[in-house]
Amino acid sequence: MSERAEAAGHRPAPAHTHPDDVSLLAALSALADPVRLQLVRDLASHPDWTLSCSNFDVPVGRAAKSHHFAVLRDVGLVEQRDQGTKRLNRLRREEFDARFPGLLDLTLRADDTH
Amino acid sequence: MSERAEAAGHRPAPAHTHPDDVSLLAALSALADPVRLQLVRDLASHPDWTLSCSNFDVPVGRAAKSHHFAVLRDVGLVEQRDQGTKRLNRLRREEFDARFPGLLDLTLRADDTH
Q: With contact defined as beta carbons under 8 Å apart, do A20 and A100 qualify?
């Protein structure tokens, strides 16, 4: 089995939630975490589909990182697709902005020096 | 000892934090709670200093309610002052808006029907 087929066989395609189906409480809870804030900021500073999960340098293990991405998917902040052995990412900026105007802008502001 | 003096004697004046000294992460964490969201919304729908802590009908005990108010004070969302046996409240709308533009408006939007 090739590496690509093996990866495809072992990992189910990620499930997604549209921001329209997300509560404000869930959205705030997803963003109220330092690792997830960093993931979102990293995503915002790169073009869509250019970062795979392994490209994010956050101080947590692999399983925890997967969990954080799942939380971001579940509130409609991140879209993922598998390409070979890589899971590529896109920030769902437009859809999330439409549902929660201003929240992502606030999150991405660089003034959070406290 | 009168009831008023007794209350004053037993309860230290509440400590406050200005929103300018609050991180985005702390602000999001404070709002990412259903009871605190309700407290903030109730405060926003009443004039300043008209609600005492006992006026808020939330499904938690007295100690938990005090904790939630302390969290809201610590992120600069609520100002409190004691008047006799009552602890009166004010939403720090203007100061919080200046620090986190749009976050309170988003919180107070009535569209969160999920």
A: no
